[in-house]
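Input.
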Amino acid sequence: MTFKTLDDLGDVTGKRALVRVDLNVPMADLKVTDDTRLRSTLPTVTELADRGAIVLLLAHFGRPKGAQRPDMSLSLVTKAYEDVLGRPVRFVGDCQGENAAANVADMQPGDIAILENTRFHGGEEKNDPELARAIAALGDFYVNDAFSAAHRAHSSTEAIAHILPAYAGRAMEAELKALQKALGEPERPVAAVVGGAKVSTKLEVLRHLVTKVDHLIIGGGMANTFLAARGVAVGKSLCEHDLTGTAVEILDAAERANCTVHLPYDVVVAKEFAANPPSLRTVNVHEVAEDEMILDVGPAAVEALADAIKTCRTLVWNGPLGAFETVPFDAATVALAQTAAALTQSGSLVSVAGGGDTVAALNHAGVADDFTFVSTAGGAFLEWMEGKELPGVKALETA
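Output.
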């Protein structure tokens, strides 16, 4: 994959940069509750502004479905963004048309503006070329810095990249390079940790990974379905019994591909899902009682998983091993994450993680900063793990 970056831009003084970013941040009582996505835009936005470009930010906010929704206006985010950026930020009440053009006409080199929610236009999610042309009329070149929106073929992520000279922003560039290292051209052996509640949400991920990695570590509620497929009684654990046949197919595919699938052989169980329940115990996976549920991977299995990762050069991680939000069912996720972080810091492992629960789990373990790369993208990261082509990325590729 080859794509142009900000390094390929010449003199941009006075030129208008249309920069697609992700400002779809969580809010409560009209205040941003997590500014991670805002901060991720800073390297690209500050560089372009410092180089004299007029920076016009394109983003969506919520799901207004083409309606003008005041509660989904990006004006609500502008002050918070200004605070994070540490510079004045103008708000423009549309992302296309005469009013928007008039609003940006007097902007000077280095000025920054947020344009109104692209999804206020029904054509955005339809990848309407007319809307893309109308947005493009405001700029001289296009920068996509929103990997988290790159799995959608929308006017502001795909169509516009065919109209204006298109470049990857710094966050997009870092993401694509990390993903290339993880599954594109990885150093082997490669391990993947895939956790979470349901196999049904990650079927395509698992099918793709068994052809790409040497070790597949399955945790969370998903592991219960695979254990059941192998004839293990899992009590009243979360388990998709109707998918055991599919699990067998994935296990067979892994065997054909010489991919070792790791399932827990000791587990932490309880009769109720609560913090430190009195019924808590650690047992061999074949000793789960009918009235017990599996809530975490056991310590012996975690030690074996750590030993497997120590033999690897690359790790991809998506999803927790247990119900990590509740103590003590965070133990396996924390322990294995800390092992991966230590190996990364020692220089023996390239570790790439992504997905909402994964980021939360790694933050909980205190190791998010110690991984090679942690992606905040949810759907885009999963689709990449499924081996799908991402329209917003494909549109940036050069011949």
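Residues 275 and 326 are 6 Å apart (CA to CA).
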